[in-house]
Each structure stands twice: as structure tokens, then as C-alpha cells.
Design brief:
Belongs to the Gfo/Idh/MocA family. By secondary structure, the protein is α/β, with parallel strands linked by helices. It has 14 helices and 15 strands. It folds into two domains: 140 residues, NAD(P)-binding Rossmann-like Domain (Rossmann fold), CATH 3.40.50; 187 residues, 2-Layer Sandwich (Dihydrodipicolinate Reductase, domain 2), CATH 3.30.360.10. A nine-stranded mixed beta sheet has the order 14-13-12-11-7-10-9-8-15, covered by helices on one side.
Length: 403
């Protein structure tokens, strides 16, 4: 049976719609965006879809599920409205930009029984899954520490020309961008951050002369590897107030200690993970095409070649092949329910860590304690949202005609 879906937000994140359109048994029935330019793009790409600027009209268009791909500060309100209407929701990460909104989303999903899914696609990337497989095999023993260096080579083009550059829309890039890696740190360590501290600053993109991106443009219109070095970049958001360099330390509830470092003006663009256990360590080189995981399990003097090199398979699809798997898992969840690899609880814990690390970074750089969730909320989502028993497809109705 075909699943009719809607999309809220047809900006740069709607590139996921291209993957969605190639997915069997899916109908992109309705698209909502407040921007006339975005709606024109939607009509051109999906001429059979109902395109609107009204969330209420999208909710009433007979869809069974919705992809919330709008700017981060709108995620909570849109998601809650859709959950209240009984729709299954795919909310792009980060699920919210404050802890209170993330908690409200969880509580709404539990109260209504509507299905909530958060798009943490890095759990489906081949290199993170390879690292998790090595850890689970016991080859490096019990994990004790994880160090992550995130070189964001396209940071100026991706995050400092549009809404991402403003705290009011994103809280920080440590939250917006770092939510991915914080979640993977938690996933690899099998624990959640208990205490966190941060340090950072706006060290490069705060001193530019020429600012302002033309109205109606988005990242795909200006991205270019010739935009280098960062000091020569133009079109920076004139209201930029988020950090371009940040360093975070985390103490997890199982004793694991972790660090995360993010730089938005590195010449290269990739993530480097080091995971240290009681019997060895692993480290990835590359995170998409031709990546490898190096594993050391014997004692040496000085640098030595790894004892084992695990080659990560190259996969087809956006975000290193993760997006097709992410979409597939969500649609299976919509149709059949059950547990998922991506976890709304884990998504909330990544939000909480990023929010509190940002507060620390912007004030005294001291430690912050992550507020706990109630046992009932955690159990509900860990069990696969057992309240979501109504067959979602039964709610779908015939499509509307655009007025």
C-alpha cells in the first residue's frame, strides 16, 4: 500500500525529497513552506503535489506521515501540531533548540500515541556502524574514552550565510551541527552525558567586511570550493552570532569521558573518531568514500602501524548512503511500528548536552548537569512507543487539489 506523506520546509534540507521520491510505495502528496520561492521550487519538482503555505492545510491533505525539514527553531511547534493531529512525524535533527521543547515533543508523542522519529542519519552511516561493530566484538575491550575532531571545511558556505548563523534560530552550531556527533558518542559509549562543559568563540567569521546573502538564495546557489580562504568569503550573514570554533568535554553516566571539537574553517571536511578501550583503540580515517577503521591491540614503542585495518564499504545515496536507510527505517516505523535504531530519547540527550555546553561556553566554561528524563518517558520510547497502535495508513484520505 502506498504511503502518502507531506513535507514541511522546502529549503536545503528538502534535498532529502529526492531520495524520498525514489522510494517505492511513497506518494509525496503535500508540501508546505512560507516562502513563495520555495513553493515555486516545490511545484516545479513535484507538479502533482498539493503545495501550500498553511500547516493546517497540509495536515488536512490526507497524509499519513510528515517530514519536518524546516529551520531548527520551528521543529517543536510544527512537530507538536502534527503529533496532535495523529500524524507520524519524521523530525530532522536537531529535534529542537532547547531542552524544554524537546521534552514537550516527547511528552506529546507519548500522550497522543502518534509516532515520533528523529532524523539522526549518522547512526546509519557505514563508518559509524563499523566502529560500533568493532566495539561490540570486544576487540578493544571496555570503552573508557572517545575523542572526536570535526573538521567542517564547508562551514562558511554551509552555516554562516543563512539562518544557521543566528542564535535565535539554532542556539549554536555546537548544538545544530554537533548534535550528530554527540549522539554517536553516546551510541558508541552506550551511555548519556551527565556533566558537560564547553569553550569556544566566533574567531574568524565575525570580522568580515562584505555581508549579506541575496534574498531567495540557498546554499546550493553559492557553495564553491573556490570560496577560500575563509577570510575572503563574502555574503556572511550580517547578524552572525554563533561560534565557529568550539571545544566540549563530557562525562557520561557510565563513567566514559569524551571530548568533541568543531572547527568551521578547516580546509578539509570530515570527522575523526578515536575510541579507547581497556584492550586497545580504534580510529577512523575518512568518513565516507574509501574510509578505513584502524585498530591497535598490541603495545608498541612510539607510533606503529595498526594491528588491523577494517575497510568501510562504499554505499550509494546521500550522506554516505545513510539517507535511504533513514527513510526506509522511518517508513517501516510508520507502517508497522516497533523499535528503531534512531531514538527520540537519544536525540533529546544530544540536545540537552549541546544546549548546556553552549551555556557553559558563553559564560564561565564550567560544568553543567544534564537534567534527567522521567523513567516512564524513557521506558515508553525504549519499548518502541507502544502506545502507537492505531494503523497510521487508515487515517490517510484522498488528496486535495491546490486552490
Amino acid at each position: 500500500m502506498t504511503t502518502p506523506v507531506g513535507i514541511v520546509g522546502f529549503g536545503i534540507r528538502a534535498l532529502m525529497a529526492e531520495e524520498l521520491a525514489q522510494t517505492p510505495d511513497v506518494e509525496i502528496r503535500a508540501i508546505c513552506d512560507p516562502s513563495p520561492t520555495a513553493r515555486d521550487r516545490a511545484r516545479a519538482q513535484f507538479p502533482d503535489a498539493f503545495v501550500t503555505d498553511s500547516l493546517d492545510d497540509l495536515i488536512g491533505s490526507g497524509i499519513a506521515a510528515v517530514f519536518v525539514l524546516a529551520p531548527d527553531d520551528t521543529h517543536a511547534a510544527i512537530t507538536i501540531a502534527c503529533l496532535e493531529a495523529g500524524l507520524a512525524v519524521f523530525c530532522e535533527k536537531p529535534m529542537a533548540i532547547c531542552i524544554e521543547d524537546a521534552d514537550a515533543m516527547l511528552e506529546t508523542a507519548r500522550r497522543t500515541g502518534s509516532r515520533l522519529y528523529v532524523g539522526h542519519n549518522m547512526r546509519h552511516m557505514a563508518f559509524t556502524r563499523a566502529m560500533r561493530d568493532i566495539i561490540r566484538s570486544g576487540r578493544i575491550g571496555e570503552v573508557k574514552s572517545i575523542w572526536v575532531r570535526h573538521f567542517v571545511g564547508n562551514g562558511g558556505d554551509y552555516y554562516f550565510k543563512d539562518w544557521h548563523a543566528e542564535r535565535r534560530h539554532s542556539t549554536s552550531l555546537l548544538l545544530q551541527k554537533g548534535a550528530h556527533d554527540i549522539d554517536i558518542i553516546h551510541w558508541l559509549a552506550d551511555g548519556y552525558t551527565e556533566r558537560v562543559a564547553g569553550m569556544g568563540g566566533l574567531t574568524v567569521y565575525g570580522d568580515h567586511g562584505e555581508r549579506g546573502t541575496p534574498d531567495g538564495e540557498m546554499m546550493t546557489d553559492w557553495i564553491s570550493e573556490s570560496n577560500w580562504p575563509p577570510s575572503t568569503m563574502t555574503g556572511i550573514n550580517p547578524r552572525v552570532d554563533v561560534e565557529d570554533l568550539s571545544l566540549v568535554t563530557m562525562q557520561l553516566d557510565n563513567g566514559v569521558l569524551a571530548t568533541y571539537q568543531q572547527c568551521h574553517y578547516s580546509p578539509d571536511y570530515w570527522r575523526n573518531y578515536t575510541v579507547i578501550g581497556t584492550r586497545g583503540r580504534l580510529e577512523n580515517v575518512g568518513d565516507t568514500v574509501d574510509a578505513v577503521i584502524n585498530v591497535w591491540t598490541t603495545r608498541r614503542g612510539g607510533y606503529a602501524a595498526p594491528d588491523e585495518v577494517v575497510r568501510v564499504p562504499n554505499e550509494v545515496g546521500s550522506h554516505g548512503g545513510a539517507d535511504p536507510k533513514l527513510i526506509g527505517e522511518f517508513l517501516r516505523f510508520v507502517r508497522h511500528g516497533g523499535t528503531t535504531e534512531t531514538s527520540p530519547i537519544a536525540a533529546r540527550q544530544a540536545i540537552a548536552t549541546g544546549v548546556l555546553a553552549t551555556d557553559s561556553m558563553r559564560s564561565d566554561q564550567g560544568g553543567r548537569t544534564v537534567p534527567p528524563l522521567t523513567a516512564g518517558v524513557v521506558e515508553y520510547f525504549d519499548l518502541g512507543q507502544p502506545g502507537s497502535t492505531t494503523p497510521v495508513l487508515a487515517r490517510a484520505e484522498p488528496a486535495l487539489s491546490e486552490g
